[in-house]
Amino acid sequence: MEKRLYDKCHLFWGEVILARGGRKRIRIPKLLSPVNSFEGAVGVIRAGADEIYCGVAIPGKLKNFTIYRGPGASPAQLPTYDELGKIVNYAHRHNVKVIVTVNEPFMSKVLDKTMRSHIRSCLDEGVDALIVGDFGVLSIIKDLGVDVPLIASTYFVSMNYEAVNFLGKLGFSRVILERHLTLQEISEIVNHSNVPIEVFCHAGGCSNINANCYFYHYGIFSKLLGSELRVSKHVKSVIAPCTLFYDVYDVNDEETKLCNIPILDAFTFCSLCHIPALVRIGVSGLKIVGRFKSAQEQEIYTLVYRELLDTIVKERGNVNNKRVLDKIKSLRRRLDKLEIDRAIGNSDEKKPKIMKGLNGRIKRARYEVLQGITKFPFRDIYCEQKRCLYGPLFNVPYKHFTSWDPRKLQS
Amino acid sequence: MGSKEASVMKFSVQVDDLKLLNEALATECDKVRFGAEFCEWKVPSLKTLKTAYDLTVDAGKQFDYITPRCSDKTIKRILDHLSFLNDKGEIKVIINDIGFLNVLKRYERLIPHLGRQLIHIPARCPWFYRDSRSFIFFGFMIKAAIMRRHVKDLYNQTSLHYEPTIRFYKEYGFRGLDLDWIPRCFPHYKFFVDQGLDVAVHTHLVPVTVTRKCHTARFLGEKNPQNCSKPCNTRAFLLKHEGVFMTVKLFLHGNAVFTLTQPTKKDVKNLLRAGATELVITMNPVTNTLSRERVNEVISSIKQMF
Predict the structure, then answer these.
(1) Inter-chain touch B211–A266, beta carbons under 8 Å
(2) What's the pLDDT score for residue A363?
(3) Do B10 and B31 contact (CB within 8 A), yes or no?
(4) SS3 A341
(5) Which of B86, B91, B149, B275 stands the most exposed, by the fewest C-beta atoms within 10 Å?
(6) Torsion sign across C-alpha atoms B64, B116, B42, B295
(7) Which of A170, A202, A158 is nearest to A290 (CA)?
(8) Percentage of the residues of chain B whose pLDDT score is greater than 90
């Protein structure tokens, strides 16, 4: 039954619908889901993704060159081009487009030959678009005479319409905006640019500007820092170094510790409550982050956002409708259930020593679920701390859980 | 080291307000860079910019202007600044946002210079180097250590070590670029000089990360970016995280996090050999360079290493 509902709603993909009782027309954004395996692709397509995006590990010596999540081998990448081909065939059979990310913000002469053959191999598998994050890679693509649409990655840090229009002139058919924008700023960009705008909608709302962040998550040292958390037997979740606890000192007094808090943690996670606003603003795509997530998570995130978009379609774009708001509430419960499932899957969880900050809250929520103390882990971890994408810039998630008084530090 | 290379080296002092500018103008520097590099809320008003320009010209120093990454609101303000500077003549403008590439051709007299935020340098990661060493330390990853040799050089390069990328920026009139004091990368900086670009290197502070959700402001309880009291003018914080085997030491200043590197004689020589022509000293509380005396101390200590 669920499947039939989605099939019906897919008729409205990217369609312009007339808002009830008004002249304004609203375009329903496309939903882009991440995948890192064939199983994941099957799951997100079943869940209602309009497009899927993935990366492929570059074979050979350069697989050791990992900046964020590529080109080297990492859980975020498909291991082989064959796997990509399999996904493309399956997706095309279901009228879903496949986008490949070649969006390292880095290009060097040493990488030139490898990158050319990588792009050619991806195109040979029949991908529909490429996400590009560097002008050097763009020059290779133009050199190769590639005729698939190009999408400007968030690594270009598009924060204003001049940047978006500039990328449009360079040949990008869509631009993914930086995460650190407010709804008002996104609205201004959409209104003044000629290029369709995409935004991230779930997970991965980094504390820092992605392209300027050198807190690389992978590697031995990050493990030694304790920034990698094993969620279950098979799934590893990387806790970013920006969410770790730091001893804070004034530079002029290195003897007196002011506090120990996750001071760099401004991590945001969810935009469920902002989706009606983003639809009204007119963004053309909603992108779920999580190429390194498990197939189950990728599917559930897609399902949640698909249901909300379909509800907005059903309500003819009336985004303030009570039914839309009720739907958001029920979907949050779905995300709670996902957290509960993860906690139960991780049955060897012991009582965590640290229960503050994002890492501590995740551990505590899982522990409490196992003990039957909490029923709403997602709400506790993310909603209560207002970890919403596109919220106010100076939100202070960690502030609610620490005892120091910022007024004392003002002096 | 040859005095020839040393004599072409210019010292710039980077400041973001008039108080610091007055201090900078009284130093032995050759140039002054005015403006905000990381925070768009610290972009000066047009009136302040005009005053800063006049003061600098009166003091007989060269005036450069630096811009951060910006939202629409700020970019509109900066476009007014660029119009003003364009009327004044050939002034170097350090660009940190690609939005400006869309408008640069309107300002024919300005000299665009690529800012640090538009250049990706993996070696800015505070632990990537130690990461690689730890592979060897644990011994069991001999294969990884061998593989590392193939990619080691890549980590020390920048995203501009690719001729088409350089050509792209040159088409937009860029004549130089800003880089960091990362000694391992110095041999690779020569590539830019060979490409005909001016290389400016920032001393001491290497930016590890930048945010719009300002960590300092959030920590000190600032509520709204527009009304921020700018505590970063006087305050900075040291952050330490005790890992299992290693400790990370970072410096939080405003909306950016830095690592600190102290120049050594060997590094200065290597940098001169690479052909860098400008050293940038940012006045900031992390290195306690908030007065003319401190800046002069830094300049003379580096000059002694030539």
Answers:
(1) yes
(2) 73
(3) yes
(4) helix
(5) B149
(6) negative
(7) A202
(8) 77
Out of B72, B218, B238, closest to residue A396 by CB: B218
Place of tokens 């990728």: A298
According to DSSP, residue A66 is labeled: B
Residue A117, amino acid? S
B237-242 and A246-250 strand pairing: antiparallel
**Cβ within 8 Å, pair A214-B159:** no
pLDDT tens digits, residue range B217-246?
988 888 889 889 999 999 999 999 876 556
- Which letter, b or e, does each residue of B224-235 get, where b requires 16 or more Cβ atoms within 10 Å of its Cβ? ebeebebbbbeb
User: Mutating which of B40, B212, B227, B228 best tests the A interface, going by the most A Cβ atoms within 10 A?
Assistant: B212
| ipTM tops 0.85 | yes
- What are the Cα distances from residue A303, in Å, to A50, A93, A296, A379? 11, 20, 11, 18
The answer to whether A115 touches A140, Cβ cutoff 8 Å, is yes
Is the pLDDT at B141 greater than 80? The verdict is no
Confidence of residue B46 (pLDDT cuts 50, 70, 90): very high
- Nearest C-alpha of chain B: how many angstroms from A98? 27
Residue B154 corresponds to which tokens in the numbers above? Answer: 């890549």
In angstroms, what CA-CA distances link B136 with B140, B143, B144, B148, B149? 8, 9, 8, 10, 12
- Burial readout A277-301 (b: 16 or more C-beta within 10 A, e: otherwise): bbbbbbbbbbbbbbbbbbbbbbbbb
Question: Which residues of chain A are within 8 Å of residue B232 when distances are taken between CB atoms?
Answer: none
CB A238 within 8 Å of CB A207? no
Q: How far apart are CA A117 and CA A149, in angstroms?
A: 18
* Residue type present at position B159: S
What pLDDT is recorded for position A12?
Answer: 34
Q: Write the DSSP string, chain B.
A: --HHHHHH-EEEEEESSHHHHHHHHTSS-SEEEEE-SS-GGGPPPHHHHHHHHHHHHHTT-EEEEE-----HHHHHHHHHHHHHHHHH-S-EEEE--GGGGGTGGG-TT-EEEE-GGGS--GGGSTTHHHHHHHHHHHSTTHHHHHHHHHHHHHHHS-TT-SHHHHHHHHHTT--EEEEE--GGGHHHHHHHHHTT-EEEEE-SEEEEEE-SS-HHHHHTT---GGG---GGGT--EEEEEE-SS-EEEEEEETTEEEEE----HHHHHHHHHHT--EEEEE--TTTT--SHHHHHHHHHHHHHH-
Residue A98 φ then ψ, to 5°: -115, 125
Contact (Cβ atoms closer than 8 angstroms) between residue A106 and residue B122: yes
- Inform me whether the pLDDT recorded for B195 exceeds 70: yes
- pLDDT of A64: 62
Q: Which residues contact A230 (CB under 8 A, 6 or more apart)?
A: A236, A237
Phi, psi (deg, nearest 5) at residue A203: 65, 160
List the single best residue of A135, A187, A206, A405 to mutate versus B (max B Cβ within 10 A).
A135
pLDDT at res. A2 = 35
Residue A373, SS3 per DSSP: coil
Q: What is the pLDDT of residues B105-119, one digit of tens each?
A: 999 999 999 999 999
Tell me which residues of chain A have a pLDDT lower than 50: 1-20, 22-23, 70, 227-236, 400-404, 406, 410-411
Tens of pLDDT, residue by residue over A124-168, are 999 999 999 999 999 999 999 998 999 999 999 999 999 999 999
Stated pTM of the model = 0.90
Of the listed ranges A295-299, A333-337, B151-155, B203-207, the one predicted with least confidence = B151-155
Comparing CA positions, the residue from B202, B201, B264, B260 lying closest to residue B236 is: B260
**The amino acid at A83:** E
